[in-house]
């Protein structure tokens, strides 16, 4: 059974009642971030029971030496990972000489957490009885500033309920942290300098190997009943990597004592002198004060929601789910910095190392294109262009390719491959196709072709060269084949002729050749520059085309479907519905050998190809392939349900589309895969957005126009969303009787609704 303790609410994630078994899951679900940094919802005070401590800084990583029992040529030397950053939220608390620890309190009541997504803050409140008999009420609010994105703020209120109390606050910053997933149990941070002031402190440390320098800082203010009492620390304790201040206060029964703590990080990516930068951040934050910082936070989130919100009427769980997904995406990536990208767990955990996967190009770019300025998506494409040399180096040095062939890494921080599983690192080569498709998708949606002659064509050429060399000619089939791969379905390794991989390889070559011709015609100077730079000849392009034109695709004439790979029908084809529920999820119940021999599909594979290239296939082909493969798909990848939801909606299978939408939108809230304590599935959350906009809304871009085929689940009264299409804002509102299209501005927008052209202006209604 899935977890079911998050209270339904339109704008908040709410937990009521303290349960130690839920602490790690809630630490993930109530995580906060601001694009520059983020942290799990760890308690500020001491907690002696099981917890997963985690604070993270965007762009800061460590090359953890790969730990395997064997080695092969080309194997990545390290697994890059986002680091558990120095802890700035910590506040040890003593009340009447008793340490506050929810694990040792004799009673905890009225425990409540709230992640307010509308305003961008996290709140925790409870009443507790300590072993010494003191009863207290606690309220803690924390947020990471969007405007001042190197700073976070904590307001920690304590009210003694049954007696006066001596309260001792011991706020600290600590660089002596480790990662849960460290391969060799080594420390990643080298302390450099500690600086102490009256109520502020700084610890500067740098990462071993990568030498990122970070100054972690804090500034403390003690208040009584909301008034600053100008208390200085009674003691200051410090080591080479930790500073802790002690503040003693006495508060009467029923009165409220407060510590306000400003903390955060300045990093060498952005500051020549991180200590001086930290001092400036504190000065700015203190000058604003807590109330102004909170108000600015509320206003900043209001601007985000104005464009990115999706409303759902009549289904609170569905509404809560989509807003949670949109909120986490906006917490994780702001689009300000092309050096940054989006890790599968964002700032909510360490799994997958916080690195960049193909998820960004396949799932995230559509969300950011439609809800932000197009420069945000362009920055994500620029990220890959800036790493093209590394992709060429990866193909050459690790796989023996030549002539500028590029294989982008499955997992990366800086362009180097750093995945630690052979079948993923060297076989899941379809990721190259997703990067090329993102370039196509960006141009299709934004109409901005300039990226291709400026940067994208070089990427497309490197990718086409890779596919040309990776394919081999089969005399038996008299066609080109691609052997020894892993497709999107990672429950199949080292297979031959994965349909999705072969199809996207052919498409990449064709698309690259088309763009070379277009750039030659429309941007001759760029064409000349690029072809000279990469030494590309017309003869080489013809050799590519031979591979694309004669690519082999496995099919079943009898079933009228494309086969996921050669030999798929040789498996024992027992559908998922006949699989004992006690055996799910199979990746936690079965041996890997048993998983590989089964017909079960981790995520959309053949159907991923139908999603990307929908116009290449008929509706009847989609129906046959969908119905066949859906019966064997266990959706144990977070990237799977959204594709199935979109395609079920296209096939008018609305009950199924709705079920898949709930699964993708509440994957973490309801912990479908029983792993949320490791962190949330950030990149797949963009798929939830697609499930509504592309699935139920039926939005497509064809021939430079928006197309819609709106549908609505029977469980909903209505829904609405906004998109930024070529710098015009269009609002779409759907209910069971009509769809309305509203353009923000005076310029009309021609759209196509259910196959019919419509001029959208300030208000257009379609019955």
Automatic annotation (TrEMBL):
PANTHER family: GLYCOSYL HYDROLASE-RELATED, MALTOSE PHOSPHORYLASE. Belongs to the glycosyl hydrolase 65 family. Residues 699-758 form the Glycoside hydrolase family 65 C-terminal domain. It comes from the Bacteria. Gene3D superfamilies: 1.50.10.10, Glycoside hydrolase, family 65, N-terminal domain (2.70.98.40), Maltose phosphorylase, domain 3 (2.60.420.10). GO terms for molecular function: hydrolase activity. Keywords: Hydrolase. Signal peptide: none annotated. It holds the Pfam family Glyco_hydro_65C. This is Glycoside hydrolase family 65 protein. Residues 323-690 form the Glycoside hydrolase family 65 central catalytic domain. Residues 14-268 form the Glycoside hydrolase family 65 N-terminal domain. SUPFAM superfamilies: Galactose mutarotase-like (SSF74650), Six-hairpin glycosidases (SSF48208). The lineage of its organism: Bacteria, Pseudomonadati, Bacteroidota, Flavobacteriia, Flavobacteriales. Transmembrane segments: none annotated. It comes from Flavobacterium humidisoli.
């Amino acid at each position: 059974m899935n977890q079911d303790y998050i209270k339904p609410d339109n704008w908040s994630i709410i937990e009521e009642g303290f349960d130690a078994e839920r602490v790690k899951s809630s630490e993930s679900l109530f995580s906060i971030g601001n694009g520059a940094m983020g942290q799990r919802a760890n308690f500020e005070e001491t907690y002696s029971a099981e917890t997963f401590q985690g604070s993270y800084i965007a762009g800061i990583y460590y090359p953890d030496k790969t730990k395997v029992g064997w080695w092969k040529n080309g194997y990545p030397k390290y697994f890059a990972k986002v680091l558990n950053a120095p802890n700035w939220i910590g506040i040890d608390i003593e009340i009447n000489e008793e340490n506050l620890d929810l694990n040792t309190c004799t009673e905890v009541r009225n425990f409540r957490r709230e992640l307010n997504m509308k305003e961008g803050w996290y709140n925790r409140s409870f009443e507790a009885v300590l072993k010494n008999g003191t009863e207290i009420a606690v309220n803690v609010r924390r947020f990471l500033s969007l405007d001042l994105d190197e700073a976070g703020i904590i307001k920690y209120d304590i009210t003694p309920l049954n007696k006066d109390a001596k309260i001792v606050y011991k706020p600290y910053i600590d660089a002596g942290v480790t990662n849960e997933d460290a391969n060799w149990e080594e420390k990643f941070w080298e302390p450099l300098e500690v600086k102490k002031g009256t109520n502020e402190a700084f610890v500067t440390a740098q990462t071993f190997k990568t030498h990122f320098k970070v100054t972690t800082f804090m500034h403390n203010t003690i208040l009584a009943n909301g008034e600053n009492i100008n208390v200085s620390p009674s003691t200051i304790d410090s080591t080479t990597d930790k500073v802790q201040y002690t503040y003693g206060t006495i508060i009467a029964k029923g009165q409220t004592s407060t510590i306000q703590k400003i903390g955060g990080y300045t990093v060498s990516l952005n500051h020549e002198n991180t200590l001086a930068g930290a001092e400036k951040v504190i000065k700015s934050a203190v000058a604003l004060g807590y109330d102004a910082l909170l108000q600015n936070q509320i206003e900043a989130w209001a601007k985000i929601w104005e464009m990115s919100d999706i409303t759902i009427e009549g289904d609170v769980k569905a509404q809560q789910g989509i807003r949670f997904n949109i909120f986490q995406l906006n917490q994780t990536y702001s689009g300000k910095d092309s050096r940054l990208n989006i890790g599968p767990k964002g700032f909510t955990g360490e799994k997958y190392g916080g690195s960049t996967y193909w998820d960004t190009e396949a799932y995230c770019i559509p969300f950011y294109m439609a809800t932000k300025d197009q420069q945000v998506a362009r920055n994500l494409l620029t990220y890959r262009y800036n790493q093209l040399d590394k992709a060429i180096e990866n193909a050459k040095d690790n796989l023996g390719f030549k002539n500028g062939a590029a294989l982008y890494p499955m997992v990366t921080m800086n362009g180097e491959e750093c995945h630690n599983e052979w079948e993923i690192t060297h076989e899941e080569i379809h990721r190259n196709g997703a990067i090329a498709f993102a370039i196509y998708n960006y141009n299709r949606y934004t109409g901005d072709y300039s990226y291709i002659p400026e940067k994208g064509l070089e990427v497309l050429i490197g990718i086409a060269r890779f596919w040309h060399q990776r394919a081999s000619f089969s005399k038996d089939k008299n066609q080109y084949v691609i052997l020894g791969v892993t497709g999107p379905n990672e429950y199949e390794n080292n297979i031959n002729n994965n349909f999705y991989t072969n199809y996207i390889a052919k498409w990449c070559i064709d698309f690259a050749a088309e763009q070379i011709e277009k750039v030659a015609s429309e941007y001759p100077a760029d064409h000349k520059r690029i072809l000279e730079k990469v030494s590309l000849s017309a003869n080489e392009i013809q050799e590519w085309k031979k591979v694309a034109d004669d690519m082999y695709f496995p099919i079943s004439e009898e079933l009228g479907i494309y086969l996921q790979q050669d030999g798929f029908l040789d498996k024992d084809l027992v559908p998922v519905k006949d699989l004992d529920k006690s055996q799910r999820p199979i990746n936690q119940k079965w041996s890997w050998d048993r998983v590989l021999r089964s017909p079960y599909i981790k995520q959309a594979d053949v159907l991923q190809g139908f999603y990307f290239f929908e116009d290449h296939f008929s509706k009847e082909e989609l129906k046959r392939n969908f119905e066949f493969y859906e019966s064997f798909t266990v959706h144990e990848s977070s990237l799977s349900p959204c594709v199935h939801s979109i395609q079920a909606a296209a096939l008018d299978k609305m009950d199924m589309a709705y079920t898949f939408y709930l699964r993708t939108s509440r994957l973490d809230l309801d912990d479908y895969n029983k792993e949320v304590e490791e962190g949330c599935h950030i990149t797949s959350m963009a798929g939830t957005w697609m499930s509504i906009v592309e699935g139920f809304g039926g939005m497509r871009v064809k021939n430079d126009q928006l197309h819609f085929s709106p549908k609505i689940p029977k469980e909903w009264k209505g829904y609405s969303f906004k998109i930024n299409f070529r710098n015009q804002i269009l609002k779409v509102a759907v209910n069971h009787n009509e769809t309305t299209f509203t353009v923000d501005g005076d310029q009309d927008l021609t759209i196509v609704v259910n196959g019919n052209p419509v001029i959208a202006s300030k208000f257009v209604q379609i019955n």
